[in-house]
Amino acid sequence: MEETKQQPLALRVCAELAGSFLLCFAIYAFSTWGSAVYGINIVFFALATGLAYAAVTAIFSRVSGGQLNPAITVASVLVSKTKILDGILYVIAQVIGAIAAGFAVVKLLPTSEQVAAKVWLTPAVNGFENGSVSYSLLTQYGITFSITLAIVVEIVASLIVVATAMSSLGDHDESSDRHVIAMGLAYGLATAISYPVTGAGLNPARSTGIALAAMNEGLTQNPLQQLWVFWISPVLAAAVVALVMIIAQMMTTPKVPAAADLPQTDADANADTLDDGEFFDQAASSDGDSAEKDVAEESKEAEVGNQQADSQGDADEGVERH
Hints:
Number of helices: 12
Mean pLDDT: 83
Strand content: under 5%
Distance between the termini: 113 Å
Low-confidence stretches: 315-322
């Protein structure tokens, strides 16, 4: 994948803030007045949530990657797709955007003496037991969704979302059309799994925004008291996904052999190999030594020949005298 130029940090942070606002406003809207018109329908919520995430991700994915979720940002930081400072600023922006959306929706809700704000807000907040969206139905049969079930469901659903995000985002948060579609499908599936139990948190920023806006609206369960579950569960899922990715990368990265592990024959060959300059220097030196030896031998032979000639001459003179 060809690396794209990263946008300035300030622009990316603003994109996460604006994206979180639009996303959470949409979710809070169809969870409040949308549920009043269409009723609490799991198919409606799953489809609407998936479309909301896909649409907003498509808008801002080219700027910041369209993370829009602190859990995804945490996982991205842990696997080094996002820098630590960038990740911290992203999370702050995401939470601020969600809080602004929460208060905006609450202020826009039509209320009267007969219809209080809590009637609208119950399907929008995240909770379990008496804070669950299914509480009024389950109490007829003497049962509730426990905290254990809520944590397990949120972790499993968040695993789907975070794993999908990490597998479809590029090495430096680059996004693509495949990422947009994948995130829409992942959030839709995760919502279908978790909405009856917890109202489909999946996103700590989304849970925080509506919890703060609804804390004084007379709900059966104050959502702030259960908010910790909707931070711990997605972040834990993010850590699990990051750990699996790190281990998988370590197992698939080819090991570079150390110098000591190289075959001995190669080391010997490298040690015995001479460069061209050294070879010719040695060859020239050898030729020079051979030439000197030849000259010395010729001189020695000439001296021997002279000595033999002198000896023969002396012998001839002796014969003549006799």
